[in-house]
Amino acid sequence: MKTATGKFQYLLFDLDGTLTDPKLGIARCLQYALHKLGIEETDLDKFDPFIGPPLQESFKEFYGFDEKKIAEAVAYYRERFSDVGLYENEIYPGMEEMLAHLKREGKLLAIASSKTTIYVKRILQYFNIEQYFDVVVGSEMDGTRNKKEEVVEEALRQLKLYAVEESDCDTFVMIGDRKFDINAAKAFGIASIGVSYGYPAPGELEQAGADYIVDTVQELEKLLVG
Q1: Which positions are catalytic?
Q2: Does residue 3 carry a pLDDT above 80?
C-alpha cells in the first residue's frame, strides 16, 4: 500500500459502512422482509454481507431468489426501511468534523452509493451532513443504476463538471468499505481507499487491491488532508 497523501481533490464516498453504520436498520428490515416471505432469521450478524452491494444481488446470492421473489423481498424491505429502518443508523464518530475539514481544504465531495438516491439524501439530511457534498449519486427506485460501476461513473461525470480545467485522474479517489468500491475505482482508473472500520470480510480490501487501507476515521482524515 502507498503512504499518506493530500493530493486528492475529488473525493467519492460510499455511504453504508463508510460514513455511517447502518447495520441495525438494514438487518431489521431484512429480517422483516424475509419474515413476510416465510423465512425466519434471528441472527442479525448474518446480514453483514448485505451492507454495501445492491439488495437484488444479495437476495439472489444468499437466498437463491428468482427475479419475482427478489422484487417481493425488496418491496417488503423498503416497506419498513422508508419510515423506520432509515433512522436505525449512526454516523461514525468524528465523521462530521472530517467532512467539514475537507471542505475547508477546498475538496470536492461526492456520494457514490448503491442505496436508492432518495434514501441517501434523507440520511444525509438526518445527520446534517448534506451540505458537505457537491454531488449525490445513488441507485434508482426501479432498480436501474444499482451496480457500483454505474454509480461511480455518474458521480465522476458530475464531479468533472466542477473542474476548472481537465483534471488528472490522480486527483480522484473512491473511499469505501467493500470490494465493490475498490473494483469500481479500478474500472475507471482512479485510486481507492478501503476503510476497515466498516463491513469488509477479513482480507477483502487487501484482495481487492485497495491502494490505501485505513482503520479509523482519524486515519482517513490524515490521509485525505496530508
Answers
A1: 14
A2: no
